[in-house]
Design brief:
By secondary structure, this protein is α+β, with helices and mostly antiparallel strands. Helices cover about 20% and strands about 30% of the residues. The protein has a single domain, classed as 2-Layer Sandwich (NE0471 N-terminal domain-like), CATH 3.30.2020.
Length: about 130
């Protein structure tokens, strides 16, 4: 059965979101049975905010390939934003990135999803 990211439903509904601060990872269990884990360094690199990603045609800070400090990759808090996103707060005070469930699922670093993206690089929003 094919499930589309854009359809949402079970595919984009997290049942459990756990920030393992000691282990340095964010774990998400999705309603369709999939499990996603991000280490905090990878999660910080995914920050979608205007400062990190840029805006109005200007590159963001992360586009300069900076060296991240421990404080920039140390999660201190995480907030649920409605029913569509999370907003982490990092030890350096950065807190403006809203990570949508769509993005967290579409960028899942598990081997299954990595293989899917390699096989169909232009079909990012389609599972098969």
């Amino acid at each position: 059965m094919s499930t589309s990211y854009t359809q949402g439903g079970e595919y984009l509904r997290p049942l459990r979101i756990h920030a393992d601060r000691a282990g340095g990872r964010l774990e998400i269990d999705w309603a369709d049975g999939h499990h996603t884990e991000y280490d905090f360094v990878t999660l910080r690199w995914l920050c979608p905010c205007a400062y990190c990603r840029g805006e109005a045609g200007m590159p963001g800070w992360l586009d300069s390939s900076p060296s991240l400090t421990l404080a920039q990759t140390q999660l201190t808090d995480i907030q649920l934003i409605g029913e569509y996103a999370i907003a982490p707060t990092w030890a350096d005070g950065h807190h403006t990135g809203y990570y949508t469930f769509d993005r967290l699922r579409s960028e899942c670093p598990c081997p299954e999803d990595e293989a899917r993206r390699r096989e169909r690089p232009h079909a990012r929003h389609q599972l098969g």
